[in-house]
Amino acid sequence: PLILGLESSCDDTAAALVRGRRILSSVVLGQAELHADFGGVVPEIAARAHAEKIDHCVEAALEEARVTLAEVDAIAVTAGPGLIGGVLAGVMCAKGLAAATGKPLIGVNHLAGHALTPQLTDGVAFPYLLLLVSGGHCQFLLVEGADEFRRLGGTIDDAPGEAFDKTARLLGLPQPGGPAVERAAAEGDARRFALPRPLLDRPGCDMSFSGLKTALLRARDAIVAEKGGLTVTDRADLCAGFQQAVADILAEKTRRALAEAGVSRFAVAGGVAANGTVRAALEAVCAETDTGFLAPPLALCTDNAAMIAYAGGALFALGRRDGMDLAARPRWPLDSRAAAMLGSGK
Ligand code: ATP
Ligand code: FE
């Protein structure tokens, strides 16, 4: 079946056409310049931009795929979790298209889109362990089916991408912080500063990154108090120390999650997966435990609509159809037990 996917849950407006595992088109319109002056995504600005751009995005995706709306078999849309104004813009657009054409409507969990991406890109079979590690997320998901996920743990405070961005800000490096910190760290000595590895002494797969940032701030202030400022070397060493700490935390918790999941395939997704040190640490754990390692291409690891169309197609195959009462949900845990605890879930 040919699936049209829509995504608008954060700061990218996206539309894509996917048939099985074939991506016919994937259009992503970013909003980075709209939010640049504010040091973060501003929900009201994001919502307005999504509403303004989503129709154009759908048209561009149809055109690029050289198909018409009439040929589409179903319309899949991110129905949460995310910034509610943005999610609503996508859901309303999808409902309009479904009502106008009579095509089935399928609400997709944004996290399911990320979680099924290794299948879209590499045809990885169930079950597998996924580490989603981005600017807004950090969690281990045991993926057992297109609609069967178990959350094994995740961050209890910041997401690592957010920690990279804050670290860059603390050290006067540009945004997005991840690539800037990685570049600076290349010349640094990761052992000069003893930064903490929070929660590594505790059992389980939960992680914490906010203490790391505080320790980094303290180390920076100590240098500034002593020498009046940071040298290039100081900055490089701080970045290297921070990056190594993040890699160590993710690697050790991945080792535990793999043991708990008892699977032989591991995939990493999200913007932080672009980091060479993080990736090498995760690959080493997989090599050590005889686990297949997979990192999908970055363009499909960050927010896009192809993953939503693919996940929608998988749900379509399972018989899922949503009605015009499909709700936009700011919070929507993937794990059904977690959803029940929140009192919000199917
Ligand atoms: P989400 O997808 O969770 O809604 P997002 O859009 O912020 O959030 P992504 O686009 O997946 O997430 O990733 C962006 C994050 O990845 C940013 O925080 C950025 O600093 C980080 N990042 C990008 N490249 C690197 C890198 N080389 N090293 C570390 N972090 C990186
Ligand atoms: Fe995302």
Structure in words:
This protein has 346 residues and is an alpha/beta fold. 47% of the residues lie in helices and 18% in strands. The chain is built from twelve helices and ten strands. Strand 2 and strand 3 form a beta hairpin. Helix 4 crosses helix 11 (306-317), helix 5 (160-170) crosses helix 6 and helix 7 (210-227) packs antiparallel against helix 8. The longest helix is centred in the C-terminal third of the chain and has 30 residues, at 232-261. The mean pLDDT is 93. Bound molecules: adenosine-5'-triphosphate and fe (iii) ion. Residues 10, 134-137, 161-162, 164-165, 176-179, 182, 270-272, 274-275, 302-303 line the site of adenosine-5'-triphosphate.
List keywords for this structure.
binds fe (iii) ion; 5-stranded mixed β-sheet; binds adenosine-5'-triphosphate; 346 residues; single chain; alpha/beta
Please write out the topology:
Blueprint: E1 2-7, E2 12-19, E3 22-30, H1 32-35, H2 43-65, E4 74-80, H3 84-101, E5 105-109, H4 110-122, E6 128-133, E7 138-145, E8 148-154, H5 160-170, H6 177-185, H7 210-227, H8 232-261, E9 265-269, H9 276-288, E10 292-294, H10 298-301, H11 306-317, H12 336-342
Parallel strand pairs: 1-4, 4-5, 6-9, 9-10
Antiparallel strand pairs: 1-2, 2-3, 6-7, 7-8
Helix pairs in contact: 2-3, 4-11, 5-6, 5-7, 5-8, 6-8, 7-8, 8-9
Pfam family, one: TsaD
Protein name: tRNA N6-adenosine threonylcarbamoyltransferase
Subcellular location: Cytoplasm
